[in-house]
Amino acid sequence: MTTLSTTLSTWLSQGAPAILVTVAEARGSTPREEGAGMLVGRQACAGTVGGGRLEWTAIATARRMLEDGSAAEALDLPLGPATGQCCGGHVVLRLERADAGTLAALQERERRELTARPTLLLFGAGHVGRAMAAAFAPLPLRLLWIDGRAQEFPETIPAGVERILTDSPLDPLASAPAGAGYLVLTHSHALDFEIAEAALRRGDAAYVGMIGSATKRAKFERWFRARGREAGALEGLACPIGAALTGDKRPEVIAALAAAELLMAFARPLTPSPPPPTPARSVHS
């Protein structure tokens, strides 16, 4: 996903003027949240503040500013009959002529937003893993794509995706932040089990998903219990993923449905699993 700062940097380096449009206030039902932004140039736009008449008005105002030299303006827009939008909310847009200072501020804001994004660890770079990486790359996630087979990764990694080439996939799992998501679809069922077990045992995952059938899940549950693990942790496992909703097993469909599952999981408040009970100590007289 190309960021607004990347686009603005390119435009400024080419000497192309631009207006940055930002949602300064959003009250009630609105198509975008406060802080959402877009860039408007003479011939092109990047990003969105919500579409419809709201965005058309913003673009028209920005292009008029490019022509008359205005430095900054604000638009106060109720989203009702006057704008042909039935959201019913109220939006204030801030428009400013972009320069090097604007670029620096935009880069800093995007850096903070990136830091605040939830982390997803995607294990496996096979055909389903590649479809997953392509589907997740545009989403507001920090995506770590992990495999030990260099030849399985595509020549071009999707923008914003961090490739981790390692034969020790449990290492990045151990160092992941609380509230991360884990999507397990390696070439090996044994490795899938090891990774899924480690993710569940952390007790702080927003999502743990493992590709496979109901039969694979049942086998994993038996294996998990046989290792003496807490059976209640299995409630945090999504398996099958994606295809369970429709029966469609095409990689792109699985990826789209898994993305929906993940975004819903990340939106829920994180409830850490309670620690295992402390064994009772014997008391001898």
TrEMBL record:
The keyword Cell wall biogenesis/degradation does not apply. It comes from Azospirillum oryzae. SUPFAM superfamilies: NAD(P)-binding Rossmann-fold domains. PANTHER family: ALDEHYDE OXIDOREDUCTASE MOLYBDENUM COFACTOR ASSEMBLY PROTEIN, XANTHINE DEHYDROGENASE SUBUNIT A-RELATED. NCBIfam families: xanthine_xdhC (TIGR02964). Residues 120-262 form the XdhC Rossmann domain. InterPro entries: MoCofactor_Util/Proc (IPR052698), NAD(P)-bd_dom_sf (IPR036291), Xanthine_DH_XdhC (IPR014308), XdhC_CoxI (IPR003777), XdhC_Rossmann_dom (IPR027051). Residues 11-70 form the XdhC- CoxI domain. Keywords: Plasmid. It comes from the Bacteria. This is Xanthine dehydrogenase accessory protein XdhC.
